[in-house]
Amino acid sequence: MSTFTAIAPRPAPNATTGPLAWCKANLFHDWKTTLGTVLIGVVLLSLLPRLFAWTLTDAVWNGGYEACHAGNGACWAVVREKFRFILMGRYPHEEHWRALVCTLMLLALIVASCTRACWRPWLAGLWVAVLVAYLALMRGGFAGLRYVETDLWSGLPLTILLASLSMAMAFPIAVGIALGRRSGMPAIRSLCTVYVELIRGVPLISVLFMASFMFPLLMPQGFNIDVLIRVLAGITLFAAAYMAEVIRGGLQAIPKGQVEAAATLGLSYWQTQRMIVLPQALAMVVPGIMNNFISTFKDTSLVAIVSLYELTGAMGMAMNSDANWRPFRIEGYLFIALIYFVFCFSMSRYSQWIEAQVNKSRQR
Question: How many CB atoms lie within 10 A of CB 247?
Fold first, then answer.
């Protein structure tokens, strides 16, 4: 008769979650990773104290430029001094409230457009209403409001306007071009291919130069289109060409059998694209589309070369207009870099939320 013998307990497995497990897997996985971690840590430890002192402890937060010249740290007082000029640029100082209201309206509209509860048919009408109110209030010329030329629109309001409108208009154009590149009609396919290759073959600066300086020369005598509209059209067409290739990649990933199955059900081409192909294709390329949006948002800084001073251009004007503050332009650039980071990081996090939503159908 056999006798029961208890087996000695085994040690608990190593934790696979938590800070210690993450550090072991990512920072001390093997001797190469450990060596790199140690070297980078030594460099950071040697630089961080000086960076901390320059940024915070030795920084000048208040006072005039004399205090900044006498100090050894960062001059954040320049941001305090030039804050309104950096954000509003050449827009008339006494009318800054109008630019602020317009910017807040447009940002609220963008937030509402990113909220699922607001994805209703009335959202398109809200876009039209807000854009009309934005343009009317920024331009003025009625109800006692001072008329402000579009050449004076600058700073953060111009950046938000160019980025949001170019993204909103480029997306449907990109979808149409992507479908055209996969069309069975040679003329449409060739036309879309030429457009994409032509736009992608030149830098955005050249497109802006063409829209701002060359396009008016081709127009009839006395006919002129506002420079803001021309620049907006150039950025939109440029962004649409890049986005179209991203969407085309998603279209190519859809199995051909799904299209054939839709045809057997009697669905038309546009019904197939709208209900079967495009929803899946766009869900696959959400990261690429959002990457294009972020790139477009940052590319608005190039409009300064055609005398439209958005956020970066307004900061340059704020620094160049006063020789006493000019040595501290790096603090100004760090300030607008923080603004760009907040917007771009928000778009990135929203992209991750969209990915999680569209991937729910694939979870088992």
Answer: 26
Please return the burial class of 296, using the count of CB atoms within 10 Å of its CB with bins 0-12, 13-18 and 19+: buried
Query: Which domains occur in the chain, in start order?
Result: 156-308 (1.10.3720.10)
**Measuring CA to CA, which residue among 78, 56, 63, 91 is closest to residue 332?**
78
Sign, Cα dihedral of 324, 329, 332, 334:
negative
Query: Is there a contact between 103 and 156 (Cβ–Cβ < 8 Å)?
Result: yes
Q: Which regions in the chain score pLDDT beneath 50?
A: none
Q: The whole model's pTM is what?
A: 0.84
3-state secondary structure 42-100: HHHHHHHHHHHHHHHHCCECCCCHHHHHHCCCCECHHHHHHHHHHHHCCCCHHHHHHHH
Confidence at residue 138, expressed as pLDDT on a 0 to 100 scale: 92
* Token representation of residue 82: 């030039």
Three-state secondary structure call for residue 309: coil
| pLDDT of amino acid 171 | 93
